[in-house]
């Protein structure tokens, strides 16, 4: 069994609503800077899919979380990884994973786009192995601890607090009783938002806060004290992701659990946060780690009795499906993230939709990731020529 082809599909899809809220503008540039988050976002849904074909015609699909310039991922896979993959057995995935990681480590590329590209290939190899063996990925990972995966609604993308409260009530009425608020607008403003949502949903709702790396240790400690009074269940990304010592100090002061990890890609990056007791809940993203590395991170977390809540933002079909399989296979799962507008776009690329209802993802049935990509729809959304 050999790999005979690797193709990349950098996609840009125009959604009905911009990620985190707002309407698309056909005249505006794709990328814009959000000063409140000190980060560039796209007005489109962007990602990079990879398709790996074996010599018997079977294919596996993977995806990198690439919400900005996905063509970079495509170039890395095509020119750096494809020569390593062609002629290899898909069942040598651990060897291939190591070779891809090693290919640029002495040049310092142990994070960023290089590892994102590796993640996409890794997911595709797991999908391909599952299809060749006629087994779902969660079975290859050792089995499922749950039949369906609990999740929380991530973000309430409405312009006013009143509208956000109304949207939260709508989700609660649909059986989603856990919601994460995308905040980071100042301690007073954040607490005002959380208090309003708490009043709207009642004490039975589970609330989380994503502060988007906007606070100092003292500010985050002040915020945490207010969040604890409002019974918030975790505070995500309170400090800049480079500040391990600051997170450790904050965790000692905070009664609210600290969550982080979407910016980290390897167990080596998670290790100092774990060893310095700077985190309570780890949030690796399979579109940035791949399945192989996420399971390593999860094992490391388990040895320190920490929970894992996989991050899931603008990844589309393969990324979401891989996240669900991994979440089902984790004994110490906290919850999985759910982005309703993103799932809608993701399903437009699939022949059968992924389902998330009443606070739970359904585990996709079938071999591999259990999804069927609509390749014609994918090709219609390619940003540039297929590599």
Oligomerization status of the protein chains: single chain
Distance, first to last CA: 23 Å
| CATH architecture descriptor of the largest domain | Alpha-Beta Barrel
The percent of residues in helical segments reads 40-55%
Number of helices: 13
- The CATH topology name of the largest domain reads TIM Barrel
Sequence-ordered SSE layout with sheet pairings:
Layout: E1 3-13, E2 31-34, E3 39-42, E4 45-54, E5 59-64, H1 71-85, H2 93-102, H3 113-133, H4 137-140, E6 148-154, H5 161-173, E7 178-182, H6 187-201, E8 206-210, H7 217-229, E9 232-236, H8 244-253, E10 258-260, H9 267-275, E11 281-282, H10 286-303, E12 307-308, H11 317-329, E13 336-338, H12 340-347, E14 356-357, E15 360-362, H13 375-380
Parallel strand pairs: 6-7, 6-13, 7-8, 8-9, 9-10, 10-11, 11-12
Antiparallel strand pairs: 1-4, 2-3, 4-5, 6-15, 14-15
Helix pairs in contact: 1-3, 2-3, 3-10, 5-6, 6-7, 7-8, 9-10, 10-11
What does this 3D model show about the protein?
With 387 residues, the protein is an alpha/beta fold. It has 2 domains: 3-135 and 374-380, Enolase-like, N-terminal domain (Enolase-like, domain 1, 2-Layer Sandwich), CATH 3.30.390; 139-362, TIM Barrel (Alpha-Beta Barrel). Helices cover 40% and strands 19% of the residues. It contains 13 helices and 15 strands. The chain has helices at residues 71-85, 93-102, 113-133, 137-140, 161-173, 187-201, 217-229, 244-253, 267-275, 286-303, 317-329, 340-347, 375-380; strands at residues 3-13, 31-34, 39-42, 45-54, 59-64, 148-154, 178-182, 206-210, 232-236, 258-260, 281-282, 307-308, 336-338, 356-357, 360-362. The strands form 3 sheets. Strands 6, 7, 8, 9, 10, 11, 12, 13, 14 and 15 form a 10-stranded mixed sheet that branches. A 3-stranded antiparallel sheet has the order 1-4-5, with helices on both faces. Strand 10, helix 9 (267-275) and strand 11 form a beta-alpha-beta unit. The longest helix has 21 residues, at 113-133. The radius of gyration is 20 Å and the shape is globular. The mean pLDDT is 95. It comes from Franconibacter pulveris. InterPro entries: DgoD-like (IPR034593), Enolase-like_C_sf (IPR036849), Enolase-like_N (IPR029017), Enolase_C-like (IPR029065), Mandel_Rmase/mucon_lact_enz_CS (IPR018110), Mandelate_racemase_C (IPR013342), Mandelate_racemase_N_dom (IPR013341). This is Enolase. One of its GO terms (molecular function) is lyase activity. Residues 161-257 form the Mandelate racemase/muconate lactonizing enzyme C-terminal domain.
